[in-house]
Protein: Transcriptional regulator GlxA family with amidase domain
Organism: Actinocrispum wychmicini
Amino acid sequence: MRVHRVVVLVLTAVQPLELGLPSQLFDPRTGLPYQVDLCAWRPGLVATTAGFEVKVRHGLDALDTADTVVVPGFAPHDRALPRDVTDALAHAHDRGTRMLSICTGAFALAAAGVLDGRRATTHWRYADDLAAAYPAVQVDRDVLYVDEKDVLTSAGIASGIDLCLHVVRRDHGVGAANQLARIVVAAPHRDGGQAQYIERPVLPGRGTRFADTLTWARGNLHERLTVGQLARHAGMSERTLARRFTAELGTTPLRWLIAARIDLACQILENTDCGVEELAHCTGLGTADNLRTHFRRLVGTTPATYRRTFGNPG
């Protein structure tokens, strides 16, 4: 498989955690065919917002051979960037490079004209600033990330993880993304008010209060499981389950159960030619209409479209 080159643009006063995210999540040691390089306006030491410096070996010419460019957040977010930087970003985009931003990195893409006429997001604190400074950008304040095919933007720091996992899912499928999420001990999916293209339920690791119950539930999704059955398996009342479940996992038992069924549906769609009626039955969703309703709500598309996009052509 051809190695996909990811180049991270390190701007002065870069946010170090956001700089580390793509380096970690696209690390070839995870078994995925990525290569990560850092570049800067000028090679050398680049200051971070945390008081230390990062040594960067490559200049802007590294963007010329990138398959994907990632721009982490920087401060202040509304400062003017060197013309060389914005020109290099615009050139990379013009030649077909996939462009990603994390948090305030969206301001760099906007300054380069990459976001003109597109939906985009950034940290909620700075969304109004982005909309005011770049009126050609359709700023979405309520999402974790926005996928515009060749241009993807994400909100605050943690949503950079969501975005990178989404990119891996798009490049290599749900199995690879879920495995990567386990490696970095991150949630493959986070609920929220956003309409993401793909969402995944959280499966806690060992030692988590509900790990055994959720593992059991995942193994029995073909059954008509109820919240009451989850509560009995966990050895508590439905009311206690609901309270503790929401506090620990950030979602309700019923929402988790539905999302788990949709996650299973996605896996089946990726790997089989199972019909929608059979799919509804084996995921415990009952009817094709019920499946389609929940699938569109969580995934943002239809089962048929998902299969065309992510299904195994073999």
